[in-house]
Design goal:
The protein has helices spanning about 15-25, 45-55, 95-100, 125-140, 145, 190-195, 250-255; strands at about 5-10, 30-35, 65-70, 80-85, 85-90, 110, 145-150, 160-165, 170-175, 185-190, 200-205, 210, 225-230, 235-240, 260-265. It is an alpha+beta fold. The chain has two domains: about 5-150, S-adenosyl-l-methionine hydroxide adenosyltransferase, N-terminal (Rossmann fold), CATH 3.40.50; about 160-265, Elongation Factor Tu (Ef-tu), domain 3. The strands form two sheets. Strands 8, 9, 10, 11, 12, 13, 14 and 15 form an eight-stranded antiparallel beta sheet that branches. Helix 1 (about 15-25) runs parallel beside helix 4 (about 125-140). The longest helix is centred in the middle third of the chain and has 14 residues, at about 125-140. It is elongated and about 55 Å long. The chain starts with a strand and ends with a strand. About 35% of the residues are buried.
Length: about 270
């Protein structure tokens, strides 16, 4: 059974998600539609990239992933389809795909041309344009029918990790706050290991001071204490052990950590 996933910042209050699903099923009734998330922070392509990047590879190859986050921005003048790692991604060319795949070259990229036939609803491109493209691909249709081949997509630069030339420090940023209030940075385990080279280190922020070890799980410290670890997606995370963001406040609320705040690791 073909699968189409949905990742948006639409929320669940309005009719948008239902309309999208209805449009997909009207064109391809045999498709299974799976929600990845509709609660991405509005217009936050960094958060959306993190969620979709760590979810898509758990689906079978051939899955079509529709993403619509901040598609109405003025500098987004095209909508594209990527074929990469056996999966297809349909969405705006606003930099989100460069955040998902910073070092992986797509097998194919096309800019959609079917939107020229749907001018009446380009204020909501996912409803007519993205769903039509996804349904076409799910039926085995080729990308050349719905788009024109291009060589690259737009690059977003605002979440790069900085390593000093002498490898004495890494400076990353908060890219996501999860349901529990845990703070996820863009510092990966791979980058940390390559830079650390078994040296002593301290994770530093004006918000929480210093952390001088990385634990293996949330329960490595007593309940209510701060813990640093690499999460299941291999990104450095700052958390409060067994604290519920909704009840008592996770690391984000306790320390006032928010999106794009700096997190620095110094090596001795």
């Amino acid at each position: 059974m073909p699968i189409i996933t949905l990742t948006t910042d639409y929320g669940h209050k309005d009719y948008f998600v239902a309309a999208i699903k209805g449009n997909i099923l009207s064109q391809a009734s045999e498709v299974q539609v799976v929600d990845i998330s509709h609660t991405i922070s509005p217009f936050n392509i960094i958060e959306g990239a993190y969620i979709l990047r760590n979810a898509y590879h758990h689906f079978p190859k051939g899955t079509v992933h529709i993403v619509d986050i901040d598609s109405g921005r003025k500098d987004t003048n095209s909508h594209i389809v990527l074929e990469i790692n056996g999966h297809f991604f349909v969405g705006p060319d606003n930099g989100i795909f460069s955040l998902m795949f910073p070092s992986t070259k797509p097998d194919n990229i096309v800019t959609l041309t079917i939107e020229q036939q749907a001018q009446e609803n380009l204020i909501f491109p996912m409803l007519n344009v993205f769903t039509t493209a996804a349904a076409h691909i799910s039926r085995g249709g080729t990308l050349g029918v719905i788009g024109r081949s291009i060589k690259k997509f737009k690059i977003a630069h605002d979440t790069e990790v900085n390593v000093t030339p002498d490898s004495s420090s890494i400076t990353g940023k908060v890219i996501y706050v999860d349901h529990y209030g845990n703070v996820v940075t863009n510092i990966t385990r791979k980058l940390f290991n390559e830079t650390a080279r078994s040296r002593k280190f301290s994770i530093e922020s004006p918000r929480f001071g210093q952390i001088e070890k990385i634990d293996s799980n949330y329960s490595s410290v007593p309940e209510g204490e701060i813990v640093a670890l690499f999460n299941s997606a291999d990104y450095l995370e700052i958390a409060i052990s067994r604290f519920d963001h909704n009840e008592r406040g996770g690391a984000s609320l306790i320390f006032g950590l928010k999106f794009r705040d700096n997190i620095k690791i110094n090596f001795s």
